[in-house]
Records
---
Amino acid sequence: MSNTNSTGRDAGTGLKATNRSMDRVQASLRRRYRAEKRFRAYGLISVVVGILFLFVLMASILAKGYPAFRQTFVTLDVYLDSAVIDPEGSRDPAVLRLADYKRLIRNSLQEIFPDASGRSERRKLVALISNGAPFQIQGLVMDEPSLVGQTLTLEFPASADLDMLMKGHIDRSLPEAERRLSDAQIGWVDKLVEQGRVHKRWNKALLSNGDSRDPEMAGIWGAVKGSFYMLVVTLVLSFPIGVAAAVYLEEFAPRNRWTDLIEININNLAAVPSIVFGLLGLAVFLNFFGMPRSAPLVGGLVLTVMTLPTVIISSRAALTSVPPSIREAALGMGASKMQATFHHVVPLAVPGMLTGTIIGMARALGESAPLLMIGMVAFIVDVPQGFTDPATALPVQIYLWADAPERAFVERTSAAILVLLAFLIAMNSLAIFLRRRFERRW
Amino acid sequence: MIKKGLAAAAVATLAISGSVGAQSARDYIFIVGSSTVYPFATVVAENFGRSTAFKTPKIESTGSGGGLKLFCAGVGVEHPDVTNSSRRIKASEVELCASHGVKDVVEIKIGYDGIVMANDKKAPAYQLTRRDIFLALAKTVPNDAATGVDSMIANPYKTWKDVNPELPAVKIEVLGPPPTSGTRDAFVELAMEGGCKSFDWIKALKKADKSAYKSVCHTVREDGAYIEAGENDNLIVQKLQANPSALGIFGFSFLDQNADKIKGNAIDGVVPTFDDIADGKYPVSRPLYFYVKAAHAGVIPGIPGYLAEFTSNKAWGPDGYLSDRGLIPMPETERDQFAKAAKSLQPLKLAAN
C-alpha cells in the first residue's frame, strides 16, 4: 500500500520506482527459488520413500521365500518286505495299493536306531520322514511290482519339522516342551546328519505338486494350471469382445445420448470393486446357468467381465491415437468405411490394444476376491486337467497357505508370492516389449 | 486375419461351453464349512485321496453357518455332500434342510477344539477366570461386581487389575476374531457366558428373559479393548509377539504349532494342554462336527470310504494323525458311537437337543 502511495507522489523519479519493484522481485526471487527447491525435495523424498517400501517388501519376501526352494531329504535303505506288502503273493494292484508302506519306513528307521523302542518312540521316529514317503514307495511298487522283495536306497522328503530344524527355524536351546521336535528326535536327526543321510536339494515338489496339508508335499502347480486355464478363457473372450466393442464405439457408432450412456457405464464398470463381479458370477453363472462350482471356466468368465472395461478403454485409446489422416487417405482412395477401419486403422492400433489386454490379464491373474464367491478358494489336491475340473488360482493359494498353522507354510507362502510376481513381471515386460517393438509414432 | 481370429474365438467358446454338459456327474466329494474343521478335514481328504482310487475331495472353507446354508440348499450334484461345523446344527437349519428336500442328515462328531487366550512367551502368565474374561470384555457389566447390584453399566474397566485385584495392572487389550468367525461364537458362548452366569441374578434372567440374557452375556465391548484382528490366526500370533501386553484368542492348534513363541494362559486354574482339553478340565473347549447328506452316499463315489477314513482310529484316535494337527480326540465310547453312525448312515434326530 505504502509503495503505491510513494510512486504516486514522486511521479518524476520513475527510476526509483523501477528500482523498488526490482527490489520486490529480488526479494521474492529467493523465496521462489526456495519454494522450487523444497518442491523438488518433496518429490525426491516421495520417490525415495516409495522405492524404500518396495525394497523392504521385496527383501522380506525374498529372504523368507528363497529357503522354500530347497528342501531337506533323508536317504534310507528300504527293504520292500513281501510279508508286509503282499503276504499272499498275488501282486493284485488293489492289495499293493492298500499295503502298509509306513511300516517299511519304520522298519528301515529302526535298523538305524535300534534303541528307539515303544509305541510313542517309534511314532516320533517315523514323524521325521514326510507323510508322503509311504505313497512314494506305493507309486514305485505299483508301477513295478517286481521290486517287492528287494532293498532300495531311496531319498525321501524329510518332514516339515526336520526341514525347519535344518533351516534353523527351531531353537535347540528352548525347553523341550516348547519345541516341535523332542530331544530324542533332535538326537536322531544329528545321527542321521553324521551318517550323511541328510541332504538339502532343489524342492521339486513346490513347483510340480498340487496343494497338500503337509508342507513338504505342497506345491503350486495345481494353482498355476488353474490360473492358466482361467486366463485362457479370459483372453479368448475379453480380447475379441473388447476389441469389437471398442472398434464399433470408436469408428462406427453414432454420437448420441445412448452411446454416451454406454461410454459412461464402461468407465464406471472399470472402477467397480472386483468382489462385485464375483457376486455377479455366483448369481448368473452358477445359480442361473448352473455351471460347475470352483471351475476355471466360471472363474475365467467372471474375470472376463472384470477385465472387459479395461480392454475396451485401452483399445479405444489406441484407436484414437491413430491419426485421422490415415482414415481420410484410405477413404480418399475409395476404400469403404469397413475397409479403411480393418485394413488401415485397426492394424496400427493393435500394439496398443495388446498392451491394454496384457495389463488387464495381469490384473486378472492377481485377483482373488471374485474367486471367493464362486468356490475357487478351496483345498484342491488334484491338479486340474481341464476347464471344468475344480481348481484354485495362484493368489488364492497364497491366501490359503498364509492361513495354515504349520510353520513351514510361512516360507512357502513367500515362495508362492515370488512365483506370482515373476509371472506378473513377465506379462508386464511382454506388454512393454510389444509396445516398443510394434508401436508407431507420428 | 482378424476375422479368422474372431471365428477361432467363437469356436473355442462353443467348445468350452460344450464341455460344461460333461460335468453333470461329479466324481469327487464336495465339502464345505467351518474354517476350524478345515485343517483337519483337509488332512483326512488328502490321505483318503492318496490311499484309495477315488479323487481327493474338494474342501471349501466357508464358515459353519455359510457351509450349512450351502449344504441345505438341496439334493443333487451341484450341492455339497458334507459340511463341517464348529457348532451343532440348529433346529432352524434342520428345518431349512428339510424344506429343500435334504431329509436324512448324518451327524458325526469328530473331537474337540480348545480356544486359548495366549500371550507372548516373555509376558507374565495370567491366572484368569471366566468371570474375569466376562468383566474385561463385555460391553456392559454389573453395576458393582462385588456387591452384585442388579443393574448394568457400560464397561468401565481399563486394566486387568480393575477387573480382579490379583491380575497385573496392564491395559486390557485382547486380539480376537471378528463376529463372522465360529471361534468367536464359541468363545463368547463358553468363556464369556460362562463368566456371565456366575452372577446369580443374570443367571436368573436367563429364565425370565432369554434375549436380554443373551444381549448381556454375548455382547463384546466396542471401545477398543477388544481388537478385531481378522480371521488369520497367524497374524494374531505375530501381533502378540510385537505387543507383549496383549492377549490373543485362537484355536488350540495354533498354540500347539507356535509353542516356542506364545503361551496359553490358565482359565479357571487350568492351562490349555492337550491332555486337559481331552479330559474336559479346560473350560473353553467345544465339539467339532461334520454333517453328511445320506442321499448322496450312493450317488457320489467315495463317500463311505471318506467317512471310514475320518472315523478310523489312525485318523481321529488318540495317536491318530489328526491329533498331531491339534484335534483333541473323543473318548473311546463316543468314537465308537459316531463311527457306527457313520457306517450305517444313521440320520440325525434333534430330539436330544
---
Amino acid sequence: MWDSATILMLVEGIGATLQMTLLSTLMAYALGLPMGIALVVTAKGGLKPSPFIYKALDIVANIVRSVPFLILLILVIPLTKIIVGKSYGSTATIVPLTIAAAPFIARLVESSLQEVDKGVLEAAQSMGASTGMIVRKVLLVEARTSLIVGATIATGTILGYSAMAGVVGGGGLGDIAIRYGYYRYETDIMLVSVIVLVALVQILQYIGMKLSKRLDRRITG
Amino acid sequence: MDAIIRIKDLGKTFTGKENNKDNQVEALRNINLEIHKGNIYGIIGMSGAGKSTLVRCLNFLERPTSGTVYIEGMDLSTMKDSVLRQTRTQISMIFQHFNLLMQRTVVDNICFPMYITGYSKKDARRRALELLEIVDLTEKAEAYPAQLSGGQKQRVAIARALATNPKILLCDEATSALDPTTTKAILKLLKEINETYGITIVIITHEMTVVQEICSHVAIIEKGELAESGTVEEVFTNPHTDAAKRLVFQTAQGTLQMKGKRCIRIVFNEISSFEPVISNMVLECKAPANILLADTRNINGIAHGQMILQLPEEEHLANKMIHYLKERKLTVEEVDDYVG
C-alpha cells in the first residue's frame, strides 16, 4: 500500500492541512484581534468604556462559540458557496474555520490584553497618549508574549478543527484519515495521518513557546 | 501670582453597579486648594483618605463629579479630549509601582512620552540619554526594567516624566515601595529637579517624614476632606486639627502607653533649641518629668523639634513646669488624648 500514489496523497494532505490552518488562522486573527481589542477597550473600566458595544460583542462571541463546529460547518455552507463557489475541498473549509475561530481568538486576545498592568495604561494616559496610541504602543507590545502563546493555542485548535472538516469533504489530513480509516477500514493510512497531525501540533507548539520566551523582556538575562 | 494649580469645590463620588444610593462612596468632598509655581506641595493622609483620587483629579485621569481643576487658569472640565491630552503632556506623573513598560528598554521607556508629543526618533533618543545623565543611570540605557532595582526603576520613571519638559510633576506615593535610604536619594533628586528646572511638584504620601524632608507646603486630607493646609512650618509647629496632630505625632506611634497622667507637648523653635530647657526645668522645679517623645529635625534649614513630657502627678509641680516652659516662650499644649 505504500506506493508512490499514497505517499503523494499524504504529502498533499499535509500541504492542504497547513494551508487551511495557516490561512484560517490569519483570517480569523484579522477578525478576532480587533474584536478582542474592542472588548478590552470598551469594557467597564477600560480605556473607552461603552457598555452597549461591549455587550454586543460579548453576545456575538458567545453565540458563535456555543455552536458546535460540526454544526457550524453545515450551517455556513450557503455562505461558503457564495464566497468560494463550492462547499467542499480545503479552500472551502477556510470559511467555517475562520468564522468558528474568530470569536475564540477574540477571547484569547481579550484575556492576554487584560493581563497588562493597569498602572502602565494609567501612566500612558497621564502622558497624554490617545486610545489608539495606547492600544498600538502599550497594550499590544506589553502583552506580546501572552498574545504569541494565544496564537499558538489558536493555531493548534484550528488545525484540529480542520481535520474535523474531513467529515464533509474538507480536504487535508483529516479528510484522508476519515476516508481511509472510517469508510475503507485502512487503519494504517489513518494512523499515519493521525501521527502526522500530532507531529504538526507538537512542532507548532514548540515554535510558539520558543518565540514567546525569546521575546519576553520580563525575564532577566 | 496666580496659582499654577487651582482646585475648586472639588468632589468625587464613586457609584456602584446598580446606580442606587447605597452603593455610593464619597471619596472627596468640597476640596479647595491653590498650589503656586515652584512649590513642592505635600498632600498627606492616611490610606483611604482620598489623596490618590485627588491627585488623579489634577490631570483628570479621574473626572471629578463636582467642582473642577484649573491648570494655569485653564479649566480642565471644559476641555475637549484632544486639548486635555495636550495639557497632560505638561503634567507628568510618577507612581508607587513605577509603571514602566516592561517589554521596552530604559531608553525606549524614556522616549515614549516624546513620541506622543511628536519628537523624531533621533531627537528623542538624544534627549533620553541626557535625562539618564540627570538621574545618574547612564550605564543602564539598554537594560530592561526587570533588571533594575526599585530605586533605579523610579529614576527611570522620573527621567521619563521630565522628558517633555513638564511644568508640573505629580508623585503618587512615589517612595512608598522603596527602602529608607533609596527614599532619601529619590527625594533629594526631586528637590534638585524642583530647584534646577522650577517644576512644581505635588507629592502624595502617607509619611510625614517625606513631607518634612522636601515639601514647602502641605495639605492634610482626612476622610475625603481637606483638614488643614499651609506651609510645612506652620502646620508642623502649630497643628490645629486632630488629623494634623495625629500625623505630626506619627513618629511615636505604637511605642508608648499612657497611664492617664498629664502630658504636654512642647514645640521648639530655632532659638530655644540651643538652651538645655528641660534640664533647667527639672533643676528649677526639683521634680522629674518623663520624656515620652523627643524628636528634632531639620525643616528647610531651620531646626525644629517637639517633645512630649509626662508631668509629675502633683498638681502644683505640674503647673509650675508648664509655667516655666511658657516663660521660655515655648509653645506648650496639654495633650490629654495622646495615646502613643
